[in-house]
Write a structure and sequence with these properties.
The structure holds 2 protein chains of 2 kinds.
Chain A lengths: L1 H6 L8 H12 L5 E6 L5 H14 L3 E6 L24 H16 L4 E6 L6 H12 L4 E7 L6 H8 L3 E5 L5 H12 L2 E2 L1 H11 L3 H14 L2 E4 L2 E4 L11 H7 L4 H12 L3 E2 H4 L5 H9 L3 E8 L2 E8 L2 H9 L3 H17 L7 H12 L5 H14 L2 H13 L4 H13 L3 H10 L4 H19 L3 H14 L6 H13 L3 H12 L6 H17 L3 H14 L7 H17 L3 H18 L2 H17 L3 H18 L4 H17 L2 H13 L4 H18 L5 H16 L2 H13 L6 H10 L4 H13 L3 H14 L2 H17 L3 H16 L7 H10 L3 H11 L4 H8 L3 H15 L4 H9 L7
Parallel strand pairs in A: 1-4, 1-5, 2-3, 3-4, 6-8
Antiparallel strand pairs in A: 7-8, 9-11, 10-11
Helix pairs in contact in A: 4-5, 5-6, 7-8, 8-9, 11-13, 11-14, 11-15, 15-16, 16-17, 17-18, 17-19, 18-19, 19-20, 19-21, 20-21, 21-22, 21-23, 22-23, 23-24, 23-25, 24-25, 25-26, 25-27, 26-27, 27-28, 27-29, 28-29, 29-30, 29-31, 30-31, 31-32, 31-33, 32-33, 33-34, 34-35, 35-36, 35-37, 36-37, 37-38, 38-39, ...
Chain B lengths: L2 H7 L2 H11 L4 H8 L6 H17 L7
Classes of the chains: A alpha/beta, B mainly alpha.
Chain lengths: ~900, ~60
């Protein structure tokens, strides 16, 4: 249960280097010990505890105490547990006596005296520690809060260089993510990892509190195998005592300024100065509650202010009553309005503040904010802003924004009603209306044919200069309808136009690139798409626009057999999308990261990413290509993991999401092939793959047709081999020719050929395919009576399979079945691969040791392995039903 | 992983300390920049370098 995961102590992650340094410091000649300093919650006490545990294991005698403010009021109070009963002694006698006693206790061993929160020590205790250290009676291991004054004797040791100083830093983002993965014992959604890392700023205590809050409220939960935070990051009034305590001493004026920042940070300094006196702002900065920085915008420097820690904002917001919040928003809005707006998103921010405060919103600001929110996928806020813009008289553009928000909210009927009521003026607005209607019909209502009709009708009556984006959208719809030639010619025709708007130009390049990639010309596709990426080189903020091009580039790289390059691209785009909060796009790219993992044979990793991607896609899309793709891949990954139930539900979700049957149904067919295989069907898996190939052949998607024909061969039917060879002759890149060569070598029982293909697949990053080809090569050699020749590919297969996260494979399973271990051989092999000795096995099975060893030898021979470790690797690839 | 990418993965204080050291800045100036006692700087640099070395030794991860 989640709560158990959080209450048990968290593992120590990201502190390996600190522990090694601590050990070195204590062993340094003439060392008196180490001080671990750091901010509250950074992990000083945890590190000290781990260091002490290691010292104890190494034979050190440990004496440890924790200093507190209360104990520090009494001389020697914090160290009392270490001292002798000496009520009548003078302080000097206590010192002498204590040193003598501890030295006696230590004997010839090594002693460490450890104090947590040493900055709270009284003068007498710190003098005793100085005495213990300087007489080499004990080494000191102290923790102290950064920035707090240490007692003079300890400072003296530090300045003499006698005691080492480790300034403990927060964990890096990578370390936080690793810690979360271990603490929750599972895969975390990338957005959740990013947000928890950002909010905690690497502070382990804050991170732990955040996780506690999330688990307690149910916001952080494991859904479909992925830990995800849903809703606001921190619940109002959450137990963030450390932060509340830090903010409690603020004056009313200071708190007011901090609260304003919490509602809308960062704020330009001149805006904040309208809400608080400069002296108050300086005090907040000196107290470490806010930070200031400068940014250069349009060749001018601008001062901006933000809270020093993201959790301050959460704590401050959580403490606001509704009326106080409304009052602050009103003042904030006035301050923003009274200050010249210099940034594009200033007006958006003003509109959102006014909207939340329930005040009138300027129409243009509301419209700009609605568009901004649409781009970020925050459709609910976009809808509220667009409606405010409509009410304020922004007219037709606001109605279009409202309809797009409704489409995004999966309320396409309402979107259509808004569009039908809209009254465009002029050709440009008529084009916008047609575009929004067509997209709502296609993506929202699943009426692809009607969407094309709307575009055609608009194109017939609109002048050419207003039509570019309509043509690009039509080309995209034609592509998803499987009319590759039409899509390519439309996009090429648009690109030949003069004075083309950038959005239309990028869109056309994207569609043309995809058409080239799908039709077997991935190298031309990469070249074409790179021209589009180059056009956007100076506009890094246009990530959503760039994503269209990069999706095509990803496909093209895969079809060209450049899988590692495609994987890197997917990971880079995914990370940028996490940071930019473009959620709808992130869902698809998360799926592409999973696809890349699946291609490389890592089905467990793939499944985690695909679960996450599918879940995000479903949040923003009712159906369509992205959902079909990601759910279909999930069905494949779950099949390879042997999780039949998940494979079946994912396949059903993919099938239900089909909007454009000509291109999407073959994909579902291919995914079904893998589910059927996992169900243990004999001939139907290959038939489904061949059906997919036929579907793609019909629409000219040669690259995918070749992939499906190859899958059919893997699933046991070589009937498509000839067609695959023909496709290889007319497709670019390394992948399709390699697939064809594989099937040809398999049909000809060409052992050396299969070995070569295995190397080619491995070079392309297709590890599972490489393992399969090596297995087949070994099988061919065995059958030809050349067991020695079979040995190398079999071991290669075992090594490659070990990198495939125990993915199931029809090829390897088939070979294992053909080698047909007897029931007893399998039983012995399985038990032996788990580590049992022959004598154990003999006792458990009621056989003689000699018989057990005979069975084991037979199994080794049939599987082509020579050790129990290799046996375990090979058996891991054999699905349970083979047993 | 290249050095610049690895530096960007470090906790900010480590990255700042290493960059300043690489530019020949002395310990006192690094301590002032990071608001630390000067005696803390040698160990901070040692830790920063160790963490950087750990990152540089990682294999290139393609997708996860």
């Amino acid at each position: 249960m989640p709560s158990t995961a959080s209450r048990s102590p968290w593992p120590l992650v990201g502190r390996h280097e600190e522990l090694a340094l601590l050990a070195r410091e204590l062993e340094r000649p003439a060392s008196c010990g180490v001080i671990i300093a750091g901010a509250h919650g950074v992990g000083k006490t945890r590190l000290r505890g781990e260091a002490l545990a290691r010292l104890r294991r190494d034979g050190w005698l440990i004496r440890e105490v924790t200093a507190t403010e209360a104990a520090a009021t009494i001389p020697f109070g914090p160290l009392a547990p270490l001292l002798p009963e000496a009520l009548s002694m003078s302080p000097l006698d206590v010192l002498r006596h204590s040193v003598r006693e501890l030295r006696h206790e230590r004997g010839n061993g090594r002693l460490v005296v450890s104090v947590d929160d040493a900055h709270l020590l009284d003068a007498a205790s710190s003098a005793l520690l100085h005495q213990l250290a300087s007489t080499q009676t004990a080494s000191l291991l102290l923790t102290a809060r950064s920035g707090e004054a240490l007692p003079d004797p300890i400072v003296g040791l530090r300045k003499e260089g006698a005691i080492g100083w480790i300034e403990l830093q927060p964990l890096s983002r990578t370390e936080v993510e690793a810690l979360l993965g271990q603490a929750l014992d599972g895969h975390l959604d990338a957005g959740t990892r990013y947000e928890l890392s950002r909010l905690s700023q690497g502070n382990v205590l804050f991170l732990h509190e955040l996780v506690e809050i999330g688990l307690g409220s149910g916001a952080l939960a494991e859904r479909d195998g992925v830990w995800r935070w849903e809703g606001e990051p921190v619940a109002a009034g959450g137990p963030l005592e450390a932060i509340q305590q830090r903010l409690r001493p603020l004056s009313a004026a200071q708190r007011g300024a901090a609260e304003a920042l919490a509602l809308s940070e960062p704020l330009p300094l001149d805006v904040l100065e309208r809400l608080a006196a400069p002296a108050v702002i300086r005090e907040l900065e000196a107290a470490g509650v806010i930070t200031t920085s400068t940014v250069t915008e349009r060749y001018r420097r601008r001062w901006q202010v933000r809270l020093a820690h993201p959790l301050y904002a959460e704590a401050l917001r959580g403490g606001l009553t509704p009326l106080r919040r409304r009052e602050l928003l009103g003042r904030l809005g006035d301050a923003l309005e009274a200050t010249p707006l210099r940034r594009g998103d200033d007006s958006s921010r003003l509109a959102m503040i006014r909207l939340e405060a329930g005040q009138p919103v300027h129409a243009e600001s509301a419209l700009a904010a609605a568009r901004w929110m649409l781009g970020s996928g925050r459709f609910d806020t976009a809808a509220a802003l667009a409606r405010a813009a409509v009410d304020s008289g922004a007219g037709f553009p606001a109605e279009i924004a409202l309809s797009r928000a409704m489409t995004g909210l999966r309320r396409p009927e309402e979107a259509q009603a808004v569009l039908e009521a809209a009254r465009p003026v002029g050709a440009a607005q008529a084009a916008d209306l047609a575009l929004a209607s067509a997209q709502n019909l296609h993506h929202g209502l699943g009426r692809a044919d009607r969407a094309l009709e709307v575009l055609s009708e608009a194109l017939d009556r609109l002048p050419e200069d207003a039509a570019s984006e309509l043509i690009v959208t039509r080309a995209l719809f034609e592509l998803s309808a499987g009319r590759l030639g039409t899509a390519e010619s439309l996009s090429t025709a648009v690109l030949e136009r003069a004075a083309l708007p950038l959005a239309a130009q990028i869109g056309a390049i994207g569609v043309r690139g995809l058409a080239l990639a799908f039709s077997g010309r991935p190298l031309q596709a990469v070249t074409a798409l790179d021209t589009g990426v180059e056009l956007l080189r100076d506009s890094p903020e246009l990530l959503a626009t760039r994503s269209t091009l990069l999706t095509g580039r990803w496909m093209a790289l895969c079809f060209a057999g450049r899988i590692p390059e495609a994987a890197r691209l997917a990971a880079e785009v995914h990370d940028r999308l996490v940071e930019s909060s473009l959620e709808p796009l992130r869902g698809y790219w998360t799926g592409l990261v999973g696809w890349a993992a699946l291609l490389s044979g890592r089905s467990r990793t793939a499944r985690s990413w695909l679960e996450e991607g599918g879940s995000i896609c479903h949040r923003y899309m009712a159906g369509g290509g992205h959902v079909v793709t990601v759910e279909g891949l999930l069905a494949q990954a779950a099949s390879l993991r042997g999780d039949l139930r998940r494979a079946e539900t994912a396949l059903a979700a993919a099938r239900a999401a089909v909007v454009a049957p000509p291109t999407e149904v073959p994909w579902v067919d291919l995914c079904e092939a893998w589910v059927l295989w996992a169900q243990g069907e004999a001939a139907r898996p290959a038939q489904a793959a061949l059906r997919a190939a036929a579907g793609w052949r019909e629409v000219g998607f040669s690259s995918l047709e070749a992939w499906a024909l190859h899958d059919a061969a893997r699933l046991g039917d070589l009937v498509g081999a000839h067609r695959l060879v023909l496709l290889a002759d007319c497709c670019e890149g390394d992948l399709i020719p390699a697939l064809a060569a594989h099937v040809r070598a398999l049909a000809a029982a060409d052992g050396p050929g299969l070995e070569r293909i295995s190397l080619d697949f491995e070079r392309m990053g297709l590890t599972l395919l490489a393992a399969e080809a090596a297995t087949e090569a070994a099988e061919v050699h065995q059958k030809a009576g050349m067991p020695n020749r079979a040995r190398v590919p079999m071991l290669r297969s075992a090594a490659l399979t070990a990198d495939c996260e125990q993915s199931g494979s029809p090829v390897i399973a088939r070979v294992a079945t053909r080698r047909a271990l007897t029931h007893r051989e399998f039983q012995v092999a399985q038990m032996a691969s788990g580590g049992a000795s022959s004598a154990d096995l003999a006792a458990r099975l009621g056989l003689s040791v000699r018989t057990v060893e005979n069975h084991l030898q037979q199994a080794y021979s049939k599987l082509g392995v020579s050790s129990r470790a290799q046996l375990a690797v090979v058996l891991a690839t054999v699905p349970a039903r083979v047993e | 992983m290249n050095r610049e990418l690895a530096l960007s993965e470090l906790t900010p204080a480590y990255a700042v300390a290493l960059r300043l050291r690489d530019q020949g800045v002395d310990h006192a100036a690094i301590a002032a920049r990071l608001d630390l006692p000067v005696e803390a700087v040698p160990n901070l640099l040692e830790l920063a370098q160790a963490k950087l070395d750990t990152l540089l030794a990682l294999p290139v991860v393609e997708s996860d």
